[in-house]
Amino acid sequence: xxxxxxxxxxxxxxxxxxxxxxxxxxxxxxxxxxxxxxxxxxxxxxxxxxxxxxxxxxxxxxxxxxxxxxxxxxxxxxxxxxxxxxxxxxxxxxxxxxxxxxxxxxxxxxxxxxxxxxxxxxxxxxxxxxxxxxxxxxxxxxxxxxxxxxxxxxxxxxxxxxxxxxxxxxxxxxxxxxxxxxxxxxxxxxxxxxxxxxxxxxxxxxxxxxxxxxxxxxxxxxxxxxxxxxxxxxxxxxxxxxxxxxxxxxxxxxxxxxxxxxxxxxxxxxxxxxxxxxxxxxxxxxxxxxxxxxxxxxxxxxxxxxxxxxxxxxxxxxxxxxxxxxxxxxxxxxxxxxxxxxxxxxxxxxxxxxxxxxxxxxxxxxxxxxxxxxxxxxxxxxxxxxxxxxxxxxxxxxxxxxxxxxxxxxxxxxxxxxxxxxxxxxxxxxxxxxxxxxxxxxxxxxxxxxxxxxxxxx
Length: 458
Known about the structure:
Blueprint: H1 3-24, H2 26-42, E1 61-62, H3 64-67, E2 69-76, H4 86-104, E3 110-116, E4 119-127, H5 132-140, E5 145-150, H6 154-167, E6 176-182, E7 186-193, E8 199-205, H7 207-218, E9 226-229, E10 232-235, E11 247-250, H8 256-270, E12 275-283, H9 285-338, E13 342-343, H10 345-374, H11 379-411, H12 414-443, H13 454-457
Parallel strand pairs: 1-13
Antiparallel strand pairs: 2-4, 2-12, 3-4, 5-6, 5-9, 7-8, 8-11, 9-10
């Protein structure tokens, strides 16, 4: 193993560790950056020197059982929807519920669908919610699609709104008023392409809706007709002429993804999907706070015990394994923030378990290395033999655990999935910390006087 390459690799590992540490402690990292940027703003000689970016503050995303709140479980009635459109209908339902929950003021709600075929469920987790009854009422409402026409003083309102927007004070007025045309008359919305191959949103009304739409567009030629979903403004296309037959298009600078999303939302309003509340689980803020505190204590104690064990049994090798374990924990927590991973009690349990698994590879390697040293081999040869002979056991053990975690994630409930995901992530990262980090730390001592002190390693 080349000594120069080893030193370079260890230096890179140390830099990664420092960067991860600063990522977790942005207040410490940002203080000198902010001082430099403030000095740069007042110094003429630094005008060509770019300002330094600050370290972003990325919080952990805490789950319902950790933070406290309410979980609502709904059954979805798909009996009136054909199989080919069931996935789209459930996605549209999820989007509508998410929009409603955001209007309710809940930060980072978790809304997901479960099941397949005719058995579909919607899970809504609202962390920190104070009024579960209001949340149930809000979620249970049917999505409402409506078409509005300009008010008589439309132009005056637009001018006033522009002034309010420029002056950043006052209240914006809605320049549109309700009409008879609502989502109850919309048969279907879809995505098509015009003659320039740009995506447009197609609308198909039923017979009664087609008559209302023809009358409405006939008197709004050259004027906008606004589309609102759940009271929120979507589009206000200009009417080009009277539209008969109950078909229309919404044109604009859409990407295909944007047009698909709007069409899905319109279908959710036009074809409301009946849902029924089947269970409600409330977790008090006190219980959530206690759960978080106990989870942190368990994680710290688990890490400390593992580090004490490997240092006591493997001495200097164990010390460097403990250092790599600290880096492993820091990297895992950084990934939790960046992915992001919602930290539930099950997920935290998987993380704590992965700490023990992370050191398992080191124990196998050190045991093999100890045997080679006792056989009279040099430290360099013993280290190489220890890693090469331990690798098959490490590989097979981790692969089998990953397979079990995959099965749990694929077939388990949402509670089990959090455990399986953090465990899988921990196993993959533990192989990096054991095989790459620890090995390079130990390789630094090849050719030094310390390598002859076998009692330090065995």
